């Protein structure tokens, strides 16, 4: 993965992802392994946190850890659907959504267990599919209307490897700062 540097490490603890970088076959496999590991890694970090800890924003003005976990589930559901659309349609136009508004919906206040369970099951299906894709299938594209650009499934693996680690680090760095580890 290639990251840009960012002057705001609380917002972008691992930097921003560079979508212009197309991963090679080895990087794609590393991305898939990281995507596969995320649900357990995230659960291990937060499963015993109190409601007070889960309802702590990871940065001033940022989402709470609870919202982050529900957001990751929402985002990765969309990524899974986009993967399937890309494999069954020619350069499909995906449907963007307002992540900030989704994070304010009533389900964002639920306990985290449903989203952690969902991520585990979702990633099992998604990773099984990703591992079986041929090189040609990884080069299939979807069109993102908000970015006015097409992206390959190979590039998507890098983005979602980054996305998972990005939000994991939000929670992890918060835990470090507050002595919760």
Automatic annotation (TrEMBL):
InterPro entries: DinB-like (IPR024775), DinB/YfiT-like (IPR034660), Put_metal_dep_hydrolase_YfiT (IPR023774). Residues 42-170 form the DinB-like domain. Pfam families: DinB_2. GO terms for molecular function: hydrolase activity; metal ion binding. The keyword Cytoplasm applies. NCBIfam families: PRK13291.1. This is DinB family protein. It comes from Spirosoma oryzae.
């Amino acid at each position: 993965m290639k990251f840009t540097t960012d002057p705001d490490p609380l917002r972008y603890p691992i930097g921003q992802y560079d979508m212009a970088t197309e991963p090679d076959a080895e990087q794609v496999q590393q991305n898939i392994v990281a995507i596969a590991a995320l649900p357990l890694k995230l659960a291990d970090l937060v499963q015993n946190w109190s409601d007070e800890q889960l309802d702590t924003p990871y940065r001033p003005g940022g989402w709470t850890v609870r919202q982050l976990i529900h957001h990751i589930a929402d985002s990765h559901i969309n990524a899974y659907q986009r993967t399937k659309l890309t494999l069954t349609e020619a350069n499909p136009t995906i449907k963007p959504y307002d992540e900030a508004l989704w994070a304010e919906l009533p389900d964002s206040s639920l306990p985290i267990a449903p989203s952690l369970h969902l991520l585990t099951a979702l990633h099992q299906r998604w990773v099984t599919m990703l591992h079986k894709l041929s090189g040609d299938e990884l080069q299939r594209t979807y069109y993102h209307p908000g970015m006015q650009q097409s992206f390959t499934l190979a590039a998507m693996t890098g983005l979602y490897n980054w996305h998972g680690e990005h939000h994991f680090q939000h929670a992890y760095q918060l835990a470090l700062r507050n002595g919760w580890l």
